[in-house]
Records
---
Amino acid sequence: MSTVVETDVLIVGSGPAGASAALALSTYGVPNIVVTRYASLADTPRAHITNQRTMEVLRDLGVEQDVIAQATPQHLMGNTTFCTSLAGEELGRVRSWGNDPLVQAAHELASPTRMCDMPQHLMEPVLVDAAVARGTSLRFQTEYLSHSQDDHGVTVTVRDRLRGDTYEIRAKYLIGADGGRSKVAEDAGLPMGGQMGVAGSINIVFEADLTEYTAHRPSTLYWVLAPGATVGGIGAGLVRCVRPWNEWLIVWGYDVTAGAPDLTTEYAESVVRQLVGDDEIPVTIKSSSAWTVNEMYAETYSAGRVLCAGDATHRHPPSNGLGSNTSIQDSYNLAWKLKLVLDGTASPKLLDTYTAERAPVGKQVVTRANRSIGETAPIFEALDGLSPQTPEQLWANIAARKEATEAAEKQRAELREAIAFKVYEFNAHGVDLNQRYTSDAIVPDGTPAETFARDPELHHQPTSRPGARIPHAWLTSGTRTLSTLDTVGKGRFTLLTGIGGEGWIRAAKAQDVEIATVVVGPGQQYEDPYGDWAQLSEISDAGALLVRPDGFVAFRHATAAQDAEALLSDALRRILGHA
C-alpha cells in the first residue's frame, strides 16, 4: 500500500453538499481533499431551485455573482402551470417562487438576494472551481471503500479507479457527502427514520424548442394531468425547464412494485410526446434514468469524527426545491465549526451542535417535500381523475368544467382552490428562511418563546432572537449600500451594536476569539437611513447582538451592560464548548 495521504478534512462526494463544504473550508483556510468515484461533476440538471437563504450563503462565500450569471432569473420561474399537456388545455396557474406581487415584496424585505434556477450541472462547477482555486485538492475516479477512526483522526481507504490500486487518506475529520445511497453514513451507523423507495420516478432530459408553448407563461415547472400521471412519481407528470426554452427535464412515474420500464429512446420519446402534446416538434433525447421517491432522514448526523451532510442525511423528492438548498446549508453550518475546532479556538463539543441544529431542519424538509406530493391529489379529485377510468372519461371530466351548470361551477371552484393550495410547495417562504436553532451554540436570552403571527411555512418572520438568522436591513457606509448580512460571516463572529454600545465594543476586542465589530447609528461606521434596522434589531441602541460565522444570532442583550465583558466571555465559552 502506498504512502498515506494526510489532510485536515476529507470530503467524500462532489455534489452540492461536498462542493460547498470544500468551498467554505478552503475559504476559511482549512486544508481539505474531495474524492468522488465519478470521472466528472454532475452531467444532468437534477437539483435546480436555489432559494434566498442559499444565495445568502453563496454571497458570503463569494460566488453569488457567478451563479447569477448562469442561472435562470426569478422572473422567468414563476407561472407554474397545470395543464393536460403543454400544447393542450390549461387548467390553472400558481404565481410561484416569489413572483406573486405580495410574496415578491416579502422576498425583497427578507433578503439582499434573489432566488433563481441554477441546475446542478451548472452549480457544481461554480462551487468546485472556487474551492480548488482556494486550496481544495480534488480527486476524480477515487472511490471511498471504508474508514476507521481513533481519538486523533480517521483513516479512509480509497481506490483509484484508473489504476485499480487502493491507498489510505488520513484526516482529522471525514465528511460523508456521498448522496442518497451514502456508504459513509452506512459505515458510520447513522440511525435513520422513515423509508426509502416509496414511489418510482423517471427523469428524461431532452432538447426541444418549446417556445410557442412556454414563453408566454414563463415557468420552471409545468404540471401535466394526463392518464397515468398518478402512478408513482411526484403527484403528476412534470415538464421542467432546464434552460429557457430549449432544454427540458420530464419527471414521469412508474409502479415501483413492478420495477422501472425499459428506458429506451423510443420509450422516452413517447413520454415526451404525451406530456408536450405535439407529435411533430423535433425532440432530441439526451438521457433517461429511474429513481425512487424517498422519505428518510438521519436522526444523528455524526459518529465521532465522521460527519455527514446533504442527501446522505435527508432523502426526499424534489418537491419544494429543497434538496440542494438544505445540502449547501448543512455544509455551511458545519464548516465554520470544523475550522474553529481544528485551530483550537473551540472544543470538539461544538461539533455536537451540528446534529442538534441541522437534523430538525432535515426532518422538516423530508416531511414537507413528501406532503407536497399528496397535496397534488385534490387537483385530480376536482376533476374526478383519481378513480380508475379510461382516458376518454378523464378528458370528459376535464371538459365538463366548462359547462353552465351548478355542478360545473362547483367543479371550477374546487379546481381553483386545489391549485391555489399548491402555494405550500411553490411559495413556502417560511420553510426557506424560518430556521430556528436550539443548541449549546446558542445562548437563550430569557425572552418568552416566539409565536408566529402568520403561517410559519408560508411566511418569513424576521427576528434577532438567539437561534435565528440575523434580519436583513439595508445600511449605508459612506457611499456604499449594504445589507446587515454583508456585515457578518466571512468565517468570524460579529458583534453589532449602536450609539452607547462602547462597552460591548471593548468587550469584543478583549476576547481571544476574532470578533468583527459593527456600530450602527448617525455618524457611525454604518448608518440606518431608512430606520429599518432600528425596528428589526429588537434591541436598544446600546444593546448587542453576537452573530456567528453562519449569520445566526448566538447571543443577544437588549441594553448596555456594566459587565459586558463578563457576559460576552461567558457566552463565548458556552458557544465554543468550553463551559
---
Amino acid sequence: MAATASPAYAASTDGPVTIPPSLTGVIGGGWSIATNFGANGLPLGAPTAARSTATVVPIAVSPPRATTVTLTLSGAGFSFFTAATNATFTATQSVTVTTASNGVAAVYVAIPPYGKGDTVATITATGNGGSAVSTLTARTAHVYAVGGHTPEGQTGNGSSRNAVAWPTPMAIDERLSSVHASISSYLFVTESGRLRTGGYNPFAEVGTGGNEVSVLNPIEPLKKDGTAFTDAVRGIVDTCGSEQGLFVVEDSAGDWWAVGEQVSNYLAIPGDATGSRSLTQWEKIGGNLPAKPATLSPNRFGDTLVWSLEDGTVWFTGSSASFRNYSNGLPRTAVRGAMEQLMMPDGTPVAGVKSVKQSEDNSVMMLTTDGRLLFSGTQATSISPADYANNGNVQEIAGPPGTIEEIWALHPLDSTGGAYFAKTSDNSLWAIGSNGAGRGYLGIGTTTPSKTWAKVLVDDVKEMACGAHHLLVLDNSGDVWFAGLIDENNAGLGTGLPVHNPTPMKVTSLPPNARTIAATWYDVPYVAY
C-alpha cells in the first residue's frame, strides 16, 4: 500500500492552465527528516523525499500540448519536488515543469512537520497564457513514526533513511484501532479489522510470505490460505517491543493467529511438536493449550513464551532448557516443544491470573484478577524487588499505592536488566527494576535502579510503551512523553539534545490529541491519531 495524502484528480481542460482549487495533505507529508530547519522554515541540509506521503499537484493546460508551467509556493516549510524516486533533493518553493503532449504534468509538495512551519500554503501555477491558484491545507496523519533505527522501512513512507529527527507520517490512510511493534517492525490494526505491516522482516514477522529484510511501504499481510484479515479484534503482542520477530492477533471468532518466529513450538501449534521455523503468513496458534489463551508475552529473545489462560492459569511453552530461569516449579531438563504449567512453591498451580508479562530472560510478573502481584525470577539481586527471593520461587510481592489496573514489561538491551511498570486506577504509572545502566528509561528522575515501586513523572497516564533504551508515555490529554536514552533521534525532537533523560519530556514535535502508541525494540516509537 502506497497511499498518497491527497485525492486523485482528472486532467482539466477549463482554462489555459489549471490545478485543483483546494488540496489536502498531511503534516510532515513528503519529508523523511534527518536535519534541522532554518529561519525561513525550509530545511537545512539535504532531506529525503518520501513520495508515498507527499501531496500530488496535478497540472493541465488547454489546449493540450507540451509547454512549460512555473509553480510557486507560499508557506513556511513547504517545498516542491519532482524526483521520481526517494532521491535526495534541495528544498525549493519555485519549480518549472514541462507538460506532456496531452497537456498533463504533476509535481509533489512536502509539508513540514508539526511546529516547523505553516499548515496552509498557497500554490500558484503560471503558464500557457494564464494562471491558477490552489490552497493546500494540512491535516494530522493517522500514524507517525517518531525516529529511531529506520533503514529497513520502519518509517512506512517508502524511504530507507535512518534516524529521522522529526516525526514523519506513514502511508496509512485509514484510522487505526491499535498499533504494535516487535524488534524493528510494526503491526497496525485498522478500525475496519484489517492489518497493515512493514519494516524489518528477517524472521518473516511482516507476513509477506518470505523473509526479505526491508519492507519500505505498508502491506496487507495474508493468512496461509491466501486470504486477508477483515475481522482482527486486537493485537496480542507486548507493547514494549521485543528482540523477537513475532506478531499475534485475535479475530472476532476468538481464534489466535501468529506470524514470525516459531521456536521449539512455543506457539503451541498442534502437530508442530518440536519445530523451529518462521511463519511467513498468518497461522492459527495455541491449539495445544488446555484452555483459551487470554494474554501472551515474549521474553527479550530466545525460545520461551509465557501465557495466561482464561481459566486463570499460567503456562510456559518452548524449550524447557530456559524454563529454569523463571521458576523452581518448572522442569530443569531440556525438552524442546515443552508446555508446562507454572506452580507455587508448595506444588499448587498458580491461579487467578489476569495478565502475565516477562521482561528480559530471567523473570515474570503476574497481575491477578483481585489486583495482587506475583513475581518469579532469577534476575540480579540489585534489581529484584526488595525483600523477595530471586531463586525462582513464585511469590506475592508488594505493589504500588492504589489499585493496579494493568502491567507492562520492558525488554532491555542487556539480558539481565528486567524492569516492570504498573498503572493504578488513579492513572498513575509506577516502575520497578533496572534503569538501563545509566540510561534512565524508568522515567523516575534518576538513572539508578529501583528495588521498590517509584512513580513515573507523568500525570494522568493512559498507556505506555518502550524500546530497549527508552520509555514512551501517552497521557489522557493526548500528549506523548519521552524518557531514557536518545539513540538515533528516537525522541523525535531534532538534534543537539541531552543523551540521557531520566525525567520525561513532552514530544512537542507531535501534533496534539494522540490516541495510542507503540515502540519497536530498536527504539522507533509509533503514535496514532
---
Amino acid sequence: MSDRHLPAPPSGPGGPRVPGTPAPAGHTPAASGHPLAPASDYRATPDDHTPDGTDPRSRTSDDRAPGNRPPDSPALLSGATPPGHTPGTSGDLAGPGPDHPANANGRAQGAPAPGNRAPDGLAALADRLASEGIDLVRVLWSDLHGVARGKDVHIGELTRFAGPGLSFCQAVLVTDLAGNPLEVPESSGSGWPDARARIDPGTVAVPGYAPKTAYVLADLLGSGGSHAPLELDPRGLLRRQVERLTRRGLHPVAAPELEFYLLAPEPATPPGWRGYCGHDTAGYTVGAAHDPELLLPLLIRECHTLGLGVLTGNQEFSGGQFEINHTHGPALDAADRAFLFKYAVKEIAAGHGLRATFMGKPFTGKAGSGQHVHLSLVDADGGNLLAAPDADDGFSGLGRSFLAGVLEHAPALTALLNPTVNAYKRLASADSLAPTTANWGHDNRTAYVRIPPERGSGTRIEVRAADGAANPYLVVAALLAAGLDGIERDLIPPPSLDPHSTVLPATFRDALAALDRDTVLADALGSRFTEVFVALKREELSRFERAVTDWEFREYARML
C-alpha cells in the first residue's frame, strides 16, 4: 500500500579513508520446468490483502499455493527451508514440513548445499541447463546499495568456476552509485584486490524475457587461501543473522511488499522522465485505464515464471506507481527473491523503453514508495513463536521482546532502512504514512511496526519504515539482529502508540550518526561492515551537499 492513501496522523574516486561461516544451505535444483518456486503458502498476505480463501482443489497446478506443490515442483530460490509442518489453513505462517517436496532430497536441515563444495556440482547444473537449451548463465550478487552486480558466463565454461568461484575486483563493494570507490583496504588501500563470487546452484532462475539465459546468485568470499566469507557481502551478512537465530531454535520467516514507479522518457523535463501513466488513481486500480501497455500483468507473469513468489499486484496512488506483494518464506529466501525481483522489474522495464525506480520519493507532490517487511519466527516443528492463543491479544512474550528490540534500535535501523538522501523526503511528506516515531500498533498503518490482525500461525509483525531503495538483504538482516537483541535481553515494548515514543532521525546525517553510535547493532552486523557502510553513505551525503540542485537554480537565479 502506498504511503499516500489516508490523511497523515497528527502529529569522484578518492572518498574518505576508513580505518583499516558456515556453509550456505541449499537444494539440488529440480529437473523439471523453471527451477524455482516460492517458499511456502503465506496466504496471510502482506499489506491489507485478505487471506486467500480459495478452495485449493479448485486451483490449477500453476495457481496452487506455494508450499502445496507436487513432488516435481521447482526448488527454492535460496535453497534451505526452515523446518516446519505442511501449511494448512489460509493465513498459515509456518514453513513446509519434513515431507514437503522442498525437503525431498532427504538432507538434514542446514546441510551444505550440493555443488557448493563438491567439484561436480556445477557440472550437473551445466548439464541440466544445457539440456533445456540454455547457453548463458548470469551470475549475480548484491553490492552494499542493493544494486545487482555480476558476470555472464557461457554454459560451456561454467565448470571452470567450481569451488571459490569467479574473481572480480572487490572495490565494486565499496563504490558509490556514481562509480567512486572509497579509499579503503577493500579497494585502493590494498592495490585493488580481488574477491570471489561462489555460485549457489540452488538459486537458479530462468527468466522468460531473456531467451537461453539463466540467473544464479552467488556468495562472496575473500581471494586468500581460506576464501573466508566477506564481511561486506550483504547476502552473507543476512545468512549470519539467520544462523544466530537458528542456534537458539528460532527460524525467521519474512515476506516483502515492494512499491516502485515505472517511468517513461520525457526529454523536455529536467529529470528527463515522467510517471509512465500521468494520471493519479484512488489506489488499488488495475487495467488499461492507468496501465495502458498492461505492464503490471506482464511483470506478475514474468516474476511468477522466475519463481519469485509474487502474490498480487496493483496500481498505486500516483500515476506510474505500482505495488507487488510476495509470499513469505525463510528469511534468506525472501530476501533473495526481493533482490532478484527488483533486478527483474528493472530489466523488463528497460526492455520496453521504460525505467523502473524503487527510490523513496522520485517526484515532489507524488506518493513515496515503501518496502514493508513482514517477519515471524517459527520453531523446529513449524509452530509460530509469535502466537500466544491464551494471551489477550494473541501475541507472545517472545514476540514482544523481538518487537521491543526492533523499536529500541529503530534510530540506527533508519540508516539501513532509508539509506539515501532522497529517503528523508518521503519520511517528511505531510501526506505520508511513513512513520516518524518508533512506535507500534495493532493493525495500525501509521505505526513503525504494525501487528496485522491474523493470529495463530499467521501472527507476525510488519515493519513499515523502509523505503523501496533499501537493500533487502540489509533490511532483513538488521531487523533480525535488532529483534534478537530484544529477545536476548528480555526487553518489553512500550505501550501501543505511545505518545512518548522515540523520534526517528529526520535527516540522513542524523541516521548515520545513530548507526555509528549503536555499538550493539554494529557488533551484530559486523563492525567492519558498519564502518564501511557509514563511510560510503557519508561520502554520498557529502556529494549531495556540494551539488547545486534544480530547486536552487529556479529559486535564486532569476531574482538574486
---
Amino acid sequence: MKKLIIFFIVCINQVVFGQGDLSVKNTYPTNYFNKPLDIPLILSGTFGELRSNHFHAGLDLKTQQREGLNVYAAAEGFVSRIKISLWGYGKAVYITHPNGYTTVYAHLKKFNKKIEDYIKKQQYKKESFEIQVFPSASEIPINKNELIAFSGATGGFVGPHLHFEIRDTKTEKPINPMFFGITVKDTKKPRINTLIGYSLSDNAHINNTNIPTTLSLRKLENGNLVTSKIQAFGKIGFGINAYDQLDGAYNKNGLYSLEMLVNGEKVHEFKATSFSFSETKYINLLIDYERFSTLNQRIQKCFIEPKNKLSLYNKAFRNGYLTIQDGFNYNVEIKAKDYKGNEQKIIIPIVGKKDSIVATQKIKETPYKINHQLFNKFTKKGITVAFPKYTFYNDFYLDFKVNDSFVKVHTPTLPLDRKYTLTFDVSNYTINEKGKLYIASINDKGKTNYEKTIKKETTFYTTTKKLGEFTLAKDTIAPKIKLHNFNNEQWLTNYNYLKVKITDNESGIATFRGEIDGEWILMEYNVKNGILSYNLNDKTFTTAKHHLKVIVTDNVGNSKTINATFFRKK
C-alpha cells in the first residue's frame, strides 16, 4: 500500500515539510509521527475556521512575519496545477501524490527554479502576470523533501504566512490536515463569549420574548459556564460566539467541533473534517448572518437551517431544534472543542412555561414581497432588480428605494444563495457620458466600489450577491504612474529590479502592461503598495540604451502611459 505522511518543522530560516510513514485506510489516520518535532509548529489559522462567505480550507503556518522561508514538498508527486493571481491564494502550487491526495501551498513569494522557469514561459506566452496552468504528470516531477518554493504574502492584503492544504485528488475536497499526524502544542480551552437564544416558531418564546436574546453567562470554578434558569416554550434554538487559541499564538482560531446535548442526549454535532468548495456558501446559514452583518460578530448556530446542506454536520443526530413543553424541565449542554479535545461547556437549565410574549419582532411590509421559490422582478424610476428562483432562502419584504441614480436594494442582513441582476436605464446619457459611467456599490462609510458593469446601448447591468446601496458613478480621471526606484535616463547596471508605482482612486485598475524596447515584460503587481516590479535578470540586454513603456487602464477605459529611458551594460 502506498503511504504518505506530512510533518512540519519551523526553523529560524525555513519551513520544512517531510515524509514519514502514514497508512491511508478507510478513515483518516492520526498520530503517525516517527520522530518528535524539533521546534513547535505555530499556526495562525486552523481548518474549518469561519471566514467571510467561506470556511478556511487548510492550515495557516506562521513564518515569523517574514517572507522567503524555504518550503519543501510533503512527499513525492508531480506539480498538477500552478495558479498566480492578485487576490485569493496569490502564488500557489498544487502537488498531486500517487496515493490519492494533493497538497496545496499558497501565498508564496516565488517558486523553485524549475517551476519558476516553467510558469514564466507560460506567462510570456500569454503575456499575462495572472495565469493558471495544469501541467501533465511528466512535466514537473517532485521528489520528497524537494525545495519547491519560498513563503510569501501574495494574494491581496495578507501578511507573511504559508497556507497549506491536503485535498482528496479525485473530489478536490479539502481535508483537515490534523488527521494526517500534524501536531501542534495546544493546552488552551476554547473560549465561549456569547450565548444567543432563538425563538423559532410563532408561539415560541425565551423569557417572554421571541426576539433573539443574549443570555448572561456565569463562570464556574472548573472554567465552564452556566446561565440562570430560563423560561421558554415552543420551538427554540441556541447559538454561540467562540474561538480557540493555541500555545504560542494570540490568533483567535476556529473550533474543531461544536456539540449540543439535551438531558444527556446529543442532538447536534458540527465537526471541521472535510467539505466541498461548492457548499461553503452555506456558512451564511450556519451563522446568524444578520448579527454578523450588523455587529460583525459570528454566532455559530447549534441547529441546522432547513436549506443548509453542509456536510460538516453529523446527520446521525437530530438537527438541534428544541421543542419546549409546558411544565417540563430541560438541561442543555453546549460543548465547544478544539482538535486536542480541550473544551469549554455551557450549561443551560430550562423550565417549560407557556406564557404571554411581551416583546416580539415586527415585520416591516413593503410593496415588494419576495417569494423565494419564484422569479421576482421589480422596476422603479428606471432601475430594475431581478432575482432568479431561490436567490434567497426564505420569503420576505424587500426594501427597494430609488432616489435619482441611487438605489437601495434592501439592507445587507440577508444571505443570498445566488446572484441577482441590477440594471440601470442609461438612455438619457450621451455616448461620451456613458463611456465614463459604471455601477458602484456604496459601503457603510460612503465609499464607492466598482462593480463589474456590462454596458448595453440603453442599459448598464451588474450581477451580484451584495445587498445595500448602489449608484451610477463617474470616472474621468486616468490612473497615475510614477517611476519608483529609479529616474529617467539612469544607469541600472547594478539593479536587480525595476519598479513603477501605479494608483487609481476611482473605478480602480483593470489592466497593466509593461514593455522594454517594444517587447512585453513580466511585471508583478503588489496590490498592497501599488508597485509594479520587473526582474531585470529575466532579459538579456545586448545594447546599453533601453526604452521602458508602461500602460495602465482603469475599469472604465481611462488609460495612462509612461515612457522612460534607462541604461544597462551588456
